[in-house]
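Each field is set out underneath.
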Amino acid sequence: MRTCTLDPMTLNDVTDLDTAPFVIEGQGDGAVKVYFESEQNRSEYLAMESHGAAGLSGLNDIFEAMAQNPDTGSIN
């Protein structure tokens, strides 16, 4: 598990890790423990809408289609 001590809401470094609120994103070796300066920052972070690949048919399909497109050339 990786550790991030930079509060993503304020971009300040969190120094008191024993008492700081945190969340764990992901699982296993790819998990990241993210610390926050305050419970309010943690709550705001958890309330944010997630943006990303969720709901898409697959980013691999998009990259494959672009790689095969003669106008874009090879991305490999």
Summary: The longest strand covers residues 22-25. Residues 67 and 75 are 6 Å apart (CA to CA). Helices lie at 39-47, 59-68.
